[in-house]
Amino acid sequence: MEERPAFSIQRSGASQLNNHEISGGLSSSFPALSTHLEETYQKFPNTQQAHAERELMTRPLALATHLPTNNGVVGHIFSSSSGFSSDIHYSSALPSEKHSRNSPFISQSPTNTAALPLSQSSHSLLPQSTIPSHCNKENSGSWCTDPDFLDFPVSTPVLSSQVQNSSCSGIIRSEDLGKQNDWQEWADQLITGDDALASNWNELLVDNVTNLEPNMAYQVEKPCTTVLAQNQQLPSPSVESQSVVNPSSSANNAPAKPRMRWTPELHEAFVEAVNQLGGSERATPKGVLKLMKVEGLTIYHVKSHLQKYRTARYRPEPSEGSSEKKLTSKEEISSLDLKAGMGITEALRLQMEVQKQLHEQLEIQRNLQLQIEEQGRYLQMMFEKQKSGLDKLKGSSSNQANPPVPSDATNESPTKTEMESSQRDPGNSGTGTVNAKSMLERSPQEICGEHKAPETGDLEKPKTRVSESSSQQTSKRPRIEE
Amino acid sequence: MKFGKRLKQQIEETLPSWRDKFLSYKELKKLVRLISSAESPMYGKEDAEAEFVYLLNNEIDKFNGFFMEQEEDFIIRHKDVYIQELQQRIERVISTWGTNGTKPSEAEYRDEMARVRKDMVNFHGEMVLLVNYSNINYTGLAKILKKYDKRTGGLLRLPFIQKVLQQPFFITDLVSKLVKECENTIDEMFPVQVEEEIVKEQREAITVAGKGIFRNTVAALLSMQEIRRGSSTYGHFSLPPLDLSDSDLIHSFQLNPPIPTV
């Protein structure tokens, strides 16, 4: 579980950042650069951001060393961005990865801030600074890509062909935590100072990471999941060390404050603090924040939570005890009774019944979905390994001309049908892998026969699809079974 | 097509403040069509994908924001719901045997308890609907990604869905826990009477009117059943048909006004 000091940053604290850098601080005037960035940024939405990135890709070394140096980076970004519209080589190895990272460039900074530990302790967040609306749109749910990005160079030893990448990662690795911390603060500053800065910065760094082979994707995702896993495990530990700031972006709220995911424990601490201060009306956000002593919690989180708390408290009170309210509630209940004129008790019991059932089914469905994706991922990895192993055996480049897309697609289809039938019973949870292997042998007819689809009409279509995939499956079978 | 219609129905049935928080399934589907059909050199494939991913990420943001807001709300309220109920009971006890002396009428008591029960059941329903919200949006995303891959031959689905699985809006553990808690509390406070079981058997078609939470949960359950009834593209990461053991209960429901089926 990570210790998270309050990770806010003062704009004036730029000098603080410079102290922690490896390279010397280039303290060029921040505002001047900001405006420059903004101008360039304006062009971005129209053209492909990828262009700029590719251009800037040529300078990852410089960027990496200047990670903490906002000013230095800015200088670099813009010195090379002048020719961004020119033709550049573009690696399309991971288009999806790349673009999923390209888009959320704004939110990555605040999310990153939350996601990774900071060594600085005395900073105050600048969440009030409003991100312009166009930048807000850039906030994305792929907030885990930032941890990805930062973790990735650290965790993967050898990157792709790009020399720059490896040196970039080397640099990042050597500075590691310190770098990450500084980077976040710097990124945070940029967010508050200028969104364009952060966006460019993230694009640049992200771009370095994404020029990799597809099979790196899973490793890339893993750091993300570990970071997130840590986030999610936070509810259990004690409140004091608990910093549940969830790094997802606050997309629709204008301020740049990272989205906070509250837990019951945290709320308990909140309530206690509020009560100590004399109740929800009298307590102030600042006081509550101080009393709670939770790292990573900002006054804005507390403020909004307090507001909600007050509203929630205020509403039930008037409804209690007043006879007037009783009357209306009586009418309410009787009007609610449109469930075929049954008694209130019966109606509520029925409602409860339905709700319970819905919840149960939702849980089952969710588990199934998780299982499906997990198996899909596992099998995909297996196929990738097989494929790379086979390619190595064959050696010649001509044999490697198996186009990745169709093979993946066809590889997916037999696996999916297997998983489909293996997941027929919700209780059939742990047998996935075994089933998958055994089902490779089975005929598609058998698999179809297992389908519980009541209508025979439905059986027609799945059959045709499965038989299609099975023909491809047979062609792939020798490879798989090797 | 089926899912789109079901989703639309659910959105129509849902609580008003939730209406615009769902997945823009139709728009995304149109975009996929557009991307697959218009493969012009001007707007290359990578760019189209970038745009698509960008939109998806926006949707995910939306879900996350809304979900966590609601979750926070539930966390704030959940104790109060039970406290309220407890207070009612204590009040009852006091006024029955306390200094007041006068015993409140049975009807008043029953009304009071009914009101409390209703609040709790509705609270439970709201939470379940949030879980449903999470799930249906996830399902929509999975479907859209599948469509995208199918139409453009891309490989977007698998890595992207892995990412979605990590999103806060999909991790519904806490809300589920609160739901269970609520269920237990309600069961303790309002134990199901034996007579009511008998009544269930004699029940005719139940018409669910109004716009309340109950209606929404019924709609959600019915939708889920429909969606999982066996699709035309069965077999690829598809969920098996819904198995409702107590199918009598759900089939005896009928939403009023009747919704035209597909």
Give the strand order, joined by hyphens, for the main sheet of chain A: 1-2
- Average pLDDT of chain B works out at 77
- What does the radius of gyration of chain A come to? 28 Å
Order of helices and strands of chain B: HHHHHHHEHHE
- Major beta sheet, strand line-up of chain B: 1-2
Strand-pairing-aware structural class of chain A: mainly alpha
**Total DSSP helices of chain A:** 22
Largest interface: A-B, 116 and 113 residues
Structural class of chain B: mainly alpha
> In one word, what is the shape of chain B?
elongated
- Quaternary structure classification: heterodimer
Q: Regions of chain B with pLDDT < 50 over 5+ consecutive residues?
A: 201-205, 258-262
Distance between the termini of chain B: 9 Å
Largest sheet of chain A: 2 strands, parallel
Report on this structure.
The complex is a heterodimer of chains A (482) and B (262). Chain A is mainly alpha-helical. In chain A, α7 packs across α11. The radius of gyration of chain A is 28 Å and the shape is flat. Chain A is built from 22 helices and two strands. By secondary structure, chain B is mainly α. Chain B is elongated and about 80 Å long. Chain B has one domain (2-217). Chain B starts with a helix and ends in a 7-residue tail after the last strand. Chain B has nine helices and two strands; from the N terminus they run αααααααβααβ. Chain B has helices at 2-13, 25-37, 45-97, 106-152, 157-165, 173-189, 194-201, 213-227, 247-251; strands spanning 206-208, 253-255. Classes of the chains: A mainly alpha (482), B mainly alpha (262). At the A-B interface, α6, α12, α15, α17 and α18 of A face α3, α4, α5, α6 and β1 of B.
